[in-house]
Write a structure and sequence with these properties.
The complex is a heterodimer. By secondary structure, chain A is an alpha/beta fold. Helix content of chain A is 30%, strand content 24%. In chain A, α11 runs parallel beside α12. Residues 85-90, 201-213 and 373-381 of chain A have low confidence and may be disordered. Classes of the chains: A alpha/beta, B alpha/beta.
Chain lengths: 381, 452
C-alpha cells in the first residue's frame, strides 16, 4: 500500500489568466479581477486518471484536497484542517502556511510521497518541508512551472503514479523565481534545492535488451567516465546538481550543490563562484571545460539557475567547452533541452543537437531548443 | 525488368572465397591471452575443430564447400536478389537499388551460412556438443538449427536481457533441441563471478562469450562456436556475395556501391568480400564499400586499431582489430543490435587499408529507413539490416541530387519479426539516439581502452 500525501493550492494558476503572471501575494487581486480556480479541476483530472487501488490518500480539508478526493470517490484520511477550510469564490481562505502545515502532517504520518497541485511557489513550500527525503510530485496548475518536480499534465502524473514502484526516484530541481521581476518580463531564477521525484519503473523503450538502468548507477557511471577523462592541464567548472555532485564525490572533494565550483588537478580552486569570479579565474588557465547538468523537466542547460555561466564566460571558453551530463531517467522527464545564454548570437553558436553524457563512455544525442518562450506557458512543461 | 533475380540450386557456389589470399597487408597474428605470443593451431584445438583452425589461418583463395553443407544450403539458398523498384520510385532516385535477402533462411538471417559449416566440421571430428553465446538470438537459433541437423547437442548462453525479453527466440532454440540459459549463469566460473558482484546484471555479449568459451574448455567432447568476427566465419558468409555477383551479371549490372551493416563484421564480409576482390584486382577500382555501424557502438568509425580481447573476461586470444575496448558495454536498451565492441580482423584490416569505408548512424534514423523500406518493399527488416538500408537510401538520395544512376547493392541480412518490440518503441517515440562520445574519450590519453 502506497501512502500518498495530497495537497491542493486552490489559488495556483489564477493569476495567469488575468494577466498577473503569478499569484504569489496577489490572490485577492486575482479574485477581484474575476479569476477562476484552475487547481480543483486539474486535481480531479489527476485523481480520475489513477488506475491502481493499492494506495491510500492523506489530505487537507476542504478545497486543499478533501473536496477533490470526495468528488473522485477515492478513499482518504484528512490529517489537517485549515482554519477556514470552506469559502466562496471571493475570499482568500488558505495560505502557504497551510500547505506547509499539511505537508508536515503527511511526513509525520509516514507518507511515501507528497503529490501537490500548484506552481513553483507551491513546490518551494512543499520542498521546504520534505527536503530531499520524502519524494514529491507536482501537478502543474500554477502560472510558473520552472521546477523539475512537475509531471507534464494531470494525466501524466496519474500514469506515473500508476507505474511507480514506490521506491525508484530521481532528482528534480526546485526553482525559486522572483515573481516581481517576472511580472516585469525578466526571468530571474535561482536554484532552490533538489527534491526526490518518482521515476517510472517501466522500460522507457522496447528493445533488444533489458529495461532502463537504475538512476543511481547511471549517475555513478557518468561520474566514473567524467573523472576518467579529466586532464591535469584543464580547469573544470562544475555546475549545480547531484549528477555533477557525484563527480566531485568521486574526486573526494566537497561540492557546492547549488552553485558553480572550479576544479584543477583534482582540487577545488574556487567555490560557489559568481560570474565575475569565474571570469577572473579564466585568466589563469589555458584550457577550460564546463560540466553542467540540465535543470530538471524544463531542460535548461544554460540560463536558469546557473546564470553565472554567462555568455561572457562562454565567449572566453568557447561553446565546445561544454560537457553536458544527465541520466536517462532525467532526460525522459525532459522533453527538450534549452540554451539561453541571454545573448542570441551566442545561442546561435550551438547546433540543433547536443551530446549528453548518460553513462560510462556513452552519450545521447538530444535535440536542442534555442527559442525561449517567456510566458506562463512553460517550454517543455 | 524482374523484381527477383533468382539462381538455380545447382548454382550455389561450390567454394568459399578466402580474402586472406588477396590482402595487401597480411593479418597480424592472434596473440595468446597470457603469453602474448602468436597463437598456434595447438592453442585453439581445445575449443575448435582442426578444419576450422586450418581455415582460420589458410591462405588459399578458394576453399571447397563440402557437399553435405551445400545440400543443407538448398533449404533456402540461393537467396534471392531483389531490385527495389518500389523504394526507388518512392525516393524518385535515378539510382538502381538491389538487395540480397537472407531473411528466408529457417532462422531468418544470414547466420546459418556459417552455423551449418561449423556444426558440420565439428561433427566430422567427432564432437558431440557445442557451446555458444547469443545476444538477440539470431546466432543462437542458427546454431541450434544447424547442430540438430547433425545430431549434436547445443548449449546457448543468451544475454539475460534478451532471454527475458525475447521468449520467441528462446523457443526457436528449444524447438531445434538446444539448451538455452540466461547469461550470466550459475553454470560457469565467469558467470558465477559476475552474478556474485551484480545479481541483477542484464549481461552482455562479452560476458556470454566468456561463459561459452569456458564451457567448451571444461566439458568433454564440447567445442566452442562463434557467429561472427573470426576469419572462418567471414569465409563461410562469402557465399552471399558470390551469389550476388552472379545475379548482378544476369542483369548486366556492375555495383558502384556495396553496403552492409557491421556488428562483428560477418554479414558485411559475406556480401562485400567478393566485391572487394574486384576492387583489389582492378576490375572495379571505383567501387565504394561501406560498413554501417550504430552510433552507440562505432568500432570501425571511432575505435582504435589495436590488439584486444574478444570477450569481457579476457579468455579469448587477442585479435588485432578496430575496437572500443573489450570492457565497453553498449547501452542495454539500444534497440538496433550490432552491439559488439570489436570488429572482425579481416574487415578491420581492409578498413585500415582503405578498401572499406565506414559510417555510423543513429537508431531513430535507422528505424525511419526500416519503416520506409517495409512500406515500399513489404519486408520488415531486422534492425541490424536496417542500418544498411539507411545508408542505401541516403546514397540513393545523393544520386537524386547529382542525377547519377549508380547501382547500389546492400545486404538485407534478416527479417525483423522478432524485433517488433523495437519497432513499437520507435513508433512510441521512445528510442534514444545513443552515441559513443569519441571526442571526449580521445581527449584524454589516460586509460586507453585497449591492450597494446
Amino acid at each position: 500500500m502506497i501512502r500518498i500525501g495530497f495537497v491542493v493550492n486552490p489559488y495556483a494558476g489564477m493569476g495567469g489568466a488575468v494577466g498577473l503572471k503569478g499569484t504569489d501575494g496577489r490572490v485577492q487581486e486575482a479574485i477581484d479581477r474575476g479569476a477562476v480556480r484552475e487547481s480543483p479541476v486539474k486535481a480531479i483530472r489527476f485523481l480520475s486518471g489513477i488506475t491502481r487501488r493499492d494506495i491510500h490518500f492523506f489530505t487537507a480539508g476542504g478545497e486543499m484536497g478533501e473536496d477533490e478526493l470526495v468528488a473522485a470517490k477515492l478513499p482518504h484520511t484528512c490529517l489537517y484542517h485549515p482554519d477556514r477550510s470552506y469559502s466562496d469564490e471571493e475570499t482568500i481562505t488558505t495560505t502557504a502556511a497551510d500547505t506547509s502545515a499539511a505537508c508536515q502532517e503527511f511526513i509525520k504520518n509516514n507518507c511515501d510521497i507528497i503529490i501537490f497541485c500548484g506552481g513553483d511557489g507551491t513546490a518551494r513550500d512543499v520542498y521546504s518541508c520534505t527536503g530531499a527525503e520524502t519524494p514529491i510530485l507536482g501537478i502543474p496548475t500554477g502560472v510558473k512551472i520552472y521546477s523539475g518536480v512537475f509531471a507534464t499534465s494531470p494525466e501524466s502524473a496519474a500514469r506515473l503514479l500508476s507505474q511507480w514502484n514506490g521506491s525508484s526516484c530521481t532528482d528534480g530541481e526546485v526553482m525559486d523565481v522572483d515573481e516581481e521581476e517576472y511580472r516585469k518580463g525578466n526571468l530571474n531564477t535561482r536554484l532552490f534545492g533538489f527534491a526526490k521525484i518518482p521515476s517510472s519503473s517501466i522500460p522507457c523503450q522496447s528493445c533488444k535488451q533489458i529495461s532502463c538502468g537504475d538512476d543511481r548507477q547511471a549517475t555513478e557511471e557518468i561520474a566514473s567516465f567524467i573523472t576518467e577523462i579529466m586532464r591535469d592541464d584543464t580547469l573544470y567548472l562544475l555546475g549545480a546538481g547531484s549528477t555533477t555532485g557525484a563527480v566531485a564525490e568521486r574526486l573526494g572533494i566537497s561540492h557546492t550543490i547549488l552553485g558553480v565550483d572550479a576544479i584543477f588537478q583534482g582540487r577545488i580552486v574556487g567555490s560557489d563562484l559568481n560570474e565575475k569570479q569565474i571570469l577572473s579565474l579564466l585568466g589563469h588557465y589555458n584550457r577550460v571545460k564546463i560540466i553542467l547538468s540540465p535543470i530538471g523537466a524544463q531542460g535548461f542547460i544554460l540560463g536558469r539557475g546557473n546564470q553565472q555561466i554567462s555568455h561572457h564566460v562562454l565567449a572566453r571558453t568557447g561553446t565546445d567547452a561544454l560537457i553536458v551530463v544527465a541520466t536517462e531517467a532525467k532526460l525522459r522527464n525532459t522533453k527538450s533541452l534549452y540554451i539561453d545564454t541571454g545573448n542570441p548570437e551566442m545561442n546561435g553558436l550551438f547546433g540543433d543537437t547536443i551530446q549528453v553524457i548518460c553513462g560510462y563512455r556513452m552519450a545521447i544525442r538530444a535535440r536542442l531548443n534555442k527559442e525561449i518562450i517567456l510566458s506562463g506557458s512553460v517550454p517543455g512543461g | 525488368m524482374n523484381t527477383k533475380i533468382l539462381l538455380d540450386e545447382n548454382e550455389i557456389p561450390k567454394k568459399w572465397y578466402n580474402i586472406q589470399a588477396d590482402l595487401k597487408t597480411p593479418l597480424d597474428p592472434p596473440m595468446h591471452p597470457q603469453t602474448k605470443k602468436p597463437v598456434g593451431p595447438a592453442d585453439l584445438e581445445p575449443i575448435f575443430p582442426k578444419e576450422l583452425i586450418k581455415q582460420e589461418m589458410c591462405q588459399d583463395r578458394y576453399i571447397d564447400i563440402p557437399e553435405e553443407v551445400r545440400d543443407i544450403y538448398t533449404l533456402w539458398r540461393p537467396s534471392p536478389l531483389f531490385r527495389a523498384h518500389r523504394l526507388e520510385k518512392i525516393l524518385k532516385t535515378p539510382a538502381k537499388i538491389y538487395y540480397k535477402y537472407e531473411g528466408g533462411s529457417p532462422p531468418g538471417s544470414h547466420k546459418p551460412n556459417t552455423a551449418i559449416a561449423q556444426a558440420y566440421y565439428n561433427m566430422k571430428e567427432g564432437i558431440e556438443r557445442i557451446a555458444t553465446e547469443t545476444g538477440a538470438g539470431q546466432w543462437g537459433s542458427s546454431l541450434a538449427f544447424a547442430t540438430q541437423l547433425f545430431g549434436m547437442e547445443c548449449k546457448v548462453y543468451m544475454v539475460r536481457g534478451s532471454y527475458d525479453q525475447k521468449p520467441y527466440r528462446k523457443m526457436m532454440m528449444q524447438t531445434w533441441g538446444a539448451t538455452c540459459v540466461p547469461s550470466p549463469s550459475p553454470d560457469t566460473n565467469s558467470g558465477r563471478a559476475i552474478l556474485a558482484k551484480d545479481p541483477d546484471t542484464p549481461g552482455s555479449l562479452g560476458i556470454a562469450i566468456s561463459e561459452a568459451v569456458e564451457d567448451a574448455a571444461t566439458h568433454d567432447n564440447t567445442n566452442y562456436s562463434l557467429g561472427s568476427v573470426l576469419n572462418h566465419v567471414c569465409l563461410h558468409q562469402t557465399i552471399i556475395g558470390q551469389e550476388a555477383q552472379k545475379q548482378l551479371d544476369m542483369v548486366d549490372e556492375k555495383a558502384d556501391i556495396v553496403i552492409a551493416s557491421a556488428g562483428g563484421g560477418s554479414n558485411l564480409a559475406g556480401l562485400c568480400f567478393p566485391f572487394v576482390k574486384d576492387k583489389i584486382d582492378g576490375k572495379n577500382p571505383d567501387l565504394e564499400v561501406i560498413a554501417v555501424e550504430p552510433s552507440a557502438c562505432p568500432s570501425l568509425t571511432k575505435g582504435m586499431f589495436a590488439y584486444d580481447f574478444g570477450d569481457v573476461a579476457g579468455l579469448t586470444p587477442l585479435l588485432k582489430m578496430f575496437t572500443l575496448g573489450h570492457d565497453f558495454i553498449p547501452p542495454s536498451i539500444h534497440a538496433g543490435g550490432l552491439r559488439y565492441h570489436g570488429m572482425a580482423p579481416l574487415v578491420s584490416r581492409l578498413h585500415a587499408d582503405q578498401l572499406i569505408d565506414s559510417t555510423s548512424v543513429y537508431q531513430n534514423e535507422v528505424f525511419d529507413a526500416a519503416v520506409m523500406f517495409a512500406r515500399a518493399e513489404g519486408i520488415i527488416p531486422a534492425p541490424e539490416s536496417a542500418h544498411a538500408i539507411r545508408v542505401a537510401i541516403d546514397k540513393a538520395l545523393e544520386c537524386k541530387k547529382t542525377g547519377e544512376a549508380k547501382t547500389i547493392l546492400f545486404n538485407n541480412s534478416g527479417h525483423g519479426h522478432f524485433d517488433l518490440s523495437s519497432y513499437e518503441g520507435y513508433f512510441a517515440g521512445s528510442l534514444v539516439d545513443y552515441e559513443y562520445p569519441a571526442d571526449l574519450i580521445a581527449e584524454s590519453l589516460k586509460k586507453l581502452p585497449v591492450m597494446s
